[in-house]
Amino acid sequence: xxxxxxxxxxxxxxxxxxxxxxxxxxxxxxxxxxxxxxxxxxxxxxxxxxxxxxxxxxxxxxxxxxxxxxxxxxxxxxxxxxxxxxxxxxxxxxxxxxxxxxxxxxxxxxxxxxxxxxxxxxxxxxxxxxxxxxxxxxxxxxxxxxxxxxxxxx
Length: 154
Prior knowledge:
CATH architecture: 3-Layer(aba) Sandwich
Mean pLDDT: 93
Strand order of the largest sheet: 3-4-2-5-6-1-7-8
Helix content: 25-40%
Distance between the termini: 10 Å
Shape: globular
Number of helices: 4
Number of domains: 1
Low-confidence stretches: none
Order of helices and strands: EHEHEEEHEHEE
Structural class: alpha/beta
């Protein structure tokens, strides 16, 4: 059974934090879905990832191409079946079934956006009430620190 990790972005924008988390997930050997709420945001994120770190390369693509099955990271607005990890942004929905069936579900939310905070709180409550293992991570000190955890695995 997987876990849902909530990442509260307060110091870095999504386009800075996401590549770091993607590199860690790829280091674990996982195939990752970045789930967005709309195609314009997915396209924007695709561009930001291509223009990212000049010292590295983050292989990825927008879902719907001929070579989706070869991509280690797919940006999508719809669920993708054959992935190990979901990174949900902008309040994209995830289900308790996905948390249970994936290695990890990461929910990234902007701490400076009240609507994003409310959405993340609602997702935390839904998943923790469903007895999914959940963790809350904050970057307020400049590095990621676990601040809360619910439903520890047995």
